[in-house]
Amino acid sequence: xxxxxxxxxxxxxxxxxxxxxxxxxxxxxxxxxxxxxxxxxxxxxxxxxxxxxxxxxxxxxxxxxxxxxxxxxxxxxxxxxxxxxxxxxxxxxxxxxxxxxxxxxxxxxxxxxxxxxxxxxxxxxxxxxxxxxxxxxxxxxxxxxxxxxxxxxxxxxxxxxxxxxxxxxxxxxxxxxxxxxxxxxxxxxxxxxxxxxxxxxxxxxxxxxxxxxxxxxxxxxxxxxxxxxxxxxxxxxxxxxxxxxxxxxxxxxxxxxxxxxxxxxxxxxxxxxxxxxxxxxxxxxxxxxxxxxxxxxxxxxxxxxxxxxxxxxxxxxxxxxxxxxxxxxxxxxxxxxxxxxxxxxxxxxxxxxxxxxxxxxxxxxxxxxxxxxxxxxxxxxxxxxxxxxxxxxxxxxxxxxxxxxxxxxxxxxxxxxxxxxxxxxxxxxxxxxxxxxxxxxxxxxxxxxxxxxxxxxxxxxxxxxxxxxxxxxxxxxxxxxxxxxxxxxxxxxxxxxxxxxxxxxxxxxxxxxxxxxxxxxxxxxxxxxxxxxxxxxxxxxxxxxxxxxxxxxxxxxxxxxxxxxxxxxxxxxxxxxxxxxxxxxxxxxxxxxx
Amino acid sequence: xxxxxxxxxxxxxxxxxxxxxxxxxxxxxxxxxxxxxxxxxxxxxxxxxxxxxxxxxxxxxxxxxxxxxxxxxxxxxxxxxxxxxxxxxxxxxxxxxxxxxxxxxxxxxxxxxxxxxxxxxxxxxxxxxxxxxxxxxxxxxxxxxxxxxxxxxxxxxxxxxxxxxxxxxxxxxxxxxxxxxxxxxxxxxxxxxxxxxxxxxxxxxxxxxxxxxxxxxxxxxxxxxxxxxxxxxxxxxxxxxxxxxxxxxxxxxxxxxxxxxxxxxxxxxxxxxxxxxxxxxxxxxxxxxxxxxxxxxxxxxxxxxxxxxxxxxxxxxxxxxxxxxxxxxxxxxxxxxxxxxxxxxxxxxxxxxxxxxxxxxxxxxxxxxxxxxxxxxxxxxxxxxxxxxxxxxxxxxxxxxxxxxxxxxxxxxxxxxxxxxxxxxxxxxxxxxxxxxxxxxxxxxxxxxxxxxxxxxxxxxxxxxxxxxxxxxxxxxxxxxxxxxxxxxxxxxxxxxxxxxxxxxxxxxxxxxxxxxxxxxxxxxxxxxxxxxxxxxxxxxxxxxxxxxxxxxxxxxxxxxxxxxxxxxxxxxxxxxxxxxxxxxxxxxxxxxx
Lengths: 594, 594
Description:
Chains A, B: Homodimer. The first copy, chain A, is of the alpha+beta class and 594 residues long.
């Protein structure tokens, strides 16, 4: 028999009609002569009533059913009695009076109870991912992901963007993260690399004149895994020609607004706020500020230059800074011990050596360091600049600027959560613009690209690329959502000389950059147009929209924290013949094997 | 200045307006005081007129321009004189009177002339792919590909299919083609495999209850390359639950009709013809018949069993068959030498030892073997069954059935092209259904799956899986377009015992199949639903629609025939440090290096 509708689609219009459903037994309640079954499919659940007086066949089969059996049910849609209506189901006013039930496939007892995830380990969920994906939350998340990608495609298509596929077997480039490599059988000793992004290919597509490109594409990084990282992740990749940074941002804003509306039903106000990178760092201590709540970092460096509290004045003297945040009304929420142990340990993670604090009560500033400021200009500065009121908790870090921003920025985020300052129904986007082009890498003793080596320096800074690289800003922009970087983009270099100077600023020799990027430089000889674009982390975007904290929750078959697929057990050893064909030997250090 | 429109979009509505265009110099004609420029962007070409009397600036810059320079043009849209209208351009009745021209980027002389592809080697095209892609044909092909994928997504989305991504770093499975593998750094000596298809993941998604899945996904096979094969190729992958083979075929037919309409403007008549595999082989000598022309293989085995022509009767005696095709009206087109050398050499490729022939003229059958049949029942059989008429050329192969079908099937296709029997504007789809489940592999001395090991045997044949595997047919179906297999699908096995029997029939030991497919078998213990689907070769489909003969022509950045990217030169050696991190040594046989 053919299925006539989905369980979740059973509605008043089908009343008194005979229908055929196929799905999984979600629940079974035996009331003697009558057995109630919850039948589940992707669209929802409907109650099946198997009454021995109506169909002995149906009742007998129903009697033998267990959870997760796959069954076919033929029956009549009827109204439930008023007192048995289930308001939690969309089908809750109806039920199906079974005429015939057929077992399609049986099921063992599941290794865990569905929709009760608190009791299930990640290991078990991963091993039985096909069962884990039956859970309401995972069904919703994967469907949301689908809706997001569909909305993206719809918008970009109607806006003239062309979906073009770029290679997965490509060239290894040492700049950036570690590549996954693929040994070549035909070219012994040579390897393809899996792309970290299709950056150069999309730039070459602009050279080819496609004008507007997009792709939803897998990318790969062989990095040590952290919370929301996976060896393979999905990127929404976009590139356009002949546009400046603001024009690109406008397109992307419209895209974001469309996606939020279509997938979440949320209206986003445009234009999205723009904030300079330097301001983000100075005011929020991070390049990805969570603007769902306030609590700025306030600069007290000048005010503390002469203070008797030597920790502050000494820091200022050595060229450091003093900043503070005001946890409004939190004085009573944190004891001295909470601060001197818990919060101090927390800021130490980010390199801070200490965490000074003041509580405010009706009498004014209190706490161990308050006495240094008593009746002095420092006291006035604190009260005014921090907008101090009774009940406030003010926390200070004095150190090098980088440490102060990192420590207070993270502390601010912690307070945002702990003090309940965040409205989880809000989606707060912000553009962080005007990035530095380069960062100095202390380990490698050279400059590295803040974004990537193809980012366009600001026109007015181009001359400083060789003479004063640290002062060069870039036409680069990140899009931040609720404190997560969800996308980053830039205008790209399109002139050979500038690109060569960029490689030189990064410490490449001519031989090195010709070897690695010669094809790009050569392309720049043949009418290379100005272009720019952006790349979104799709997993992370969907994670935030789904209200999840790990991208595993929005990927159908993710790897675990040791980059392994817990279901198939990949990676796994391959045969000697395979290795021989690839001219490879595996050489495992035995000592490491324990 | 911002671009106001595309070159190809300049039309009457813009008459007398000032516009800004950006694009490439496609052509330049200097008529002294006036220079005409063809400015090109993705949407087309428009003529720019730089007249020194109107703008000295524009004329001076125009004078310095060369092909493929990237420029910005500000100017007024005017009508061309009637005698200078260019009917080949959509913008041909208009031109842009330049007010200002700015050079954005220069270009060296290109290594080849655009849109004159007959003169360019594949090597040069590949090396400068970004220039090759500027050619009209490649622009059209990539845009067609985009339209095809968009149409696919539109149809499947509105039909309730969910786009779900499956992993690229997955488990190596020895059944099938050779895998590309990816060494794991974390798990020394272990490897991921790049997927040959997401087959098992999509089956597990059906177990998870998503009901309807699709994905446009890259697949990888490390095989020796032939005409239209690439190391990485793109598959449209579809799977559904609770449907029989005909229901699935109906969905796919509607999809095909939609895609043909949206991307090509072609109406396809539904339902698509269905042909049993055995009939395809018997009548057309191939499992992918080109039905744009007739010329069936005619069975003369019984008629030739007793003939004096011992080549035929001897073959029949040894259990072989005799078949023939009639190349209508081709008697004069092929000389005795053409047949005995050219065509004979051709069928020898497919294992035929000889190629007998008869020409028909007003007097009847002629040619070296005609005398054996003269005034005998064989003559009557030939004339009647072959529908022989004066001017026909009839070709016979007598051999084992497989050789006869292969040789005559290919000869039929050759005649289709050589005799101009094919209308290239026709798109002729056919379902080839009722496939054998297994094929006997002479090299491996065992049965292998005709499709893959997860294909459902026909219900009535299940019992023969162990006792008489060669007699088992499958619920499998291929979709064939113009003689190319563009897609293949089946119902899948969803019961553990049957799947285990299938593995056994393929010669797996219990340990082997548990090791490789244990996770699938385990999943079948937990309410695995009946399901089936199909996978299309997207590259090949677009290739046929584009009228191309190699999938390279519809892939933006393809590999060459030695699996190399001629632009980036991937694959390439990686650093010793990278190898060390992967616990790998490269061991190249020096002798092979010469």
